[in-house]
Amino acid sequence: MNHQKDAFITISVIENAIEAQLLESILDERSIPHRIRSHHDTAYDGLFQTQKGWGNIDAPDRYQSEIKQIINQLRSHHFAK
């Protein structure tokens, strides 16, 4: 059995907490394995979030295109200015 296909990779930067919550809800609903990691560090009072973005979404590589499509849809529909 090839376990490499289940290794998590960083798919994308997440821009803010709202995007993270919406994305997590959609991925949970679709049963897509994932990890959302915030860059917030209390010792540095969120300094890294201003430099690196709010956080990252990690998932197996085989879901990369689907997750990127979901993120693009979220950003174009929910965060349109």
Alpha-carbon Rg, integer: 13 Å
**What percentage of the residues does DSSP assign to strands (E)?**
15-25%
* Straight-line distance between termini: 47 Å
Q: How do the strands line up in the largest sheet?
A: 1-3-2
* Biggest pleated sheet: 3 strands, antiparallel
Number of domains: 1
Q: Please tally the helical runs, counting DSSP H or I stretches of 4 or more residues.
A: 3
The SSE order reads EHEHEH
Class by SSE composition? alpha+beta
Number of strands: 3
Low-confidence stretches: none
Overall morphology = globular
Overall mean pLDDT: 82
Helix content: 40-55%
What key attributes describe this structure?
81 residues, 41% helix, alpha+beta
Describe this structure in words.
With 81 residues, the chain is of the alpha+beta class. It has one domain. It contains 3 helices and 3 strands. The chain has helices at 17-29, 47-52, 64-77; strands spanning 8-14, 35-38, 55-60. A 3-stranded antiparallel sheet has the order 1-3-2. α1 packs across α3. The longest helix has 14 residues, at 64-77. The protein is globular and about 30 Å long. The N and C termini lie far apart (47 Å).
Tell me briefly what this model is.
This protein is of the alpha+beta class.
